[in-house]
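From the shared-data thread, chain only:
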Amino acid sequence: MEIRSPENAQEWESYFSLRYEVLRKPWNQPLGTERDGLEDQTKHFACFSASKIIGVGRLDQVSPEVFQIRYMAVHPDAQNKGIGRMIIREMEAEAWLNGAETILLHARENAMGFYESLGYELQSISHLLFGTIQHFLMQKKKG
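Structure, as tokens:
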């Protein structure tokens, strides 16, 4: 397996397709909602297995010392196999290398245990996505 950014049109389509299938389609959200206006200003991570993307994540720089993990998704057939953990570790390494002191994320309730196992701590209740999916602000400090 390899973690890197998509490099061509086909890989980008697969990347966004996975984000849509895991994070939007189950809640009947329209195609296109898996993207936002910051795609060109962020760093994208994809886990490739035999040239197929099975996990994705995005790292946004919020300020010089604060980064945010967004749009984490792992294909259902690849979940609970360490893929998400590998992607998070790559994003963390990138953030720390680029001066992060804090990494933030907004976790869905069902993913909080996963992030806690990686050292993220609950800060507060966050937003309610699509009127049904409660999110929680979590953070990890450097060191």
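The CA atoms of residues 20 and 31 lie 7 Å apart.
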